[in-house]
Amino acid sequence: MDDADAVIRALYAASQVLVAVSARSLAAAGAKVTLAQFRMLVVLATRGAAKLVALAEAMGVNPSTAMRMVDRLIAVGLADRRPNPDDRRETILTVTRGGLRLVEEVTARRREEIAAIAARIEPGERSALLGALSAFGAAGAGPVAPEGEEPLFPLG
C-alpha cells in the first residue's frame, strides 16, 4: 500500500527543485520578468495571438490581472498589443521577437539543467521515475505530447 504522505512529500520536494530550476533559468537569461509573466509569454508563444479574456482564461487569472501582466510585458518590449483586424474595438496580444527569444533561451537553459539532474540519477531509477511521472501527469490530466514529440515550450 502506498504511503500518500510520503508521495506528497516527494512530489513537493521535486516541485521545489523544478521551480528553482525555472527561477535560475529565468535569472540567467537576465530577464526582468516574474515567473508568472514568463508563463504568460510561454502561453502567447505556444497559442499565438490572443484576446485578453482568452489569455486570462488560459492563465487561470482575472482579466484585470492579465492586463497588468501584459502591460508590464509590453513596457519591456516582450509583448505587443494591436487592433484586431476583424473587430477594431478589440485588441490582440502577441509575443514580440524579443519575447520569443527569451522563451526559447529560458526553455533551453531549463532543459539543460533538468538533463544534468536526470544524468545524476541511476538508469534503473530513471526508468522508475519516468513511469511515476507519466502516471502523475496522466492523473493530473496534464498535457501529453504525442509519442516521440514534446511540446514546443512546456509550461511545467
Q: What features would you highlight for this structure?
A:
disordered C terminus, elongated, 156 residues, single chain, Arc Repressor Mutant, subunit A, two-stranded antiparallel sheet, 2 strands, mainly alpha
Blueprint (SSEs and pairs):
Elements: H1 4-28, H2 35-47, H3 52-59, H4 63-75, E1 79-84, E2 87-95, H5 97-119, H6 123-139
Antiparallel strand pairs: 1-2
Helix pairs in contact: 1-5, 2-4, 3-4
Question: What's this, in brief?
Answer:
The chain has 156 residues and is mostly helical. Helices cover 63% and strands 10% of the residues.
Note down, in words, how this protein is organized.
The chain is mainly alpha-helical and 156 residues long. The protein has six helices and two strands; from the N terminus they run H-H-H-H-E-E-H-H. The protein has a two-stranded antiparallel ribbon with strand order 1-2. Helix 1 packs across helix 5 (97-119), helix 2 packs across helix 4 (63-75) and helix 3 (52-59) crosses helix 4 (63-75). It is elongated, with a radius of gyration of 18 Å.
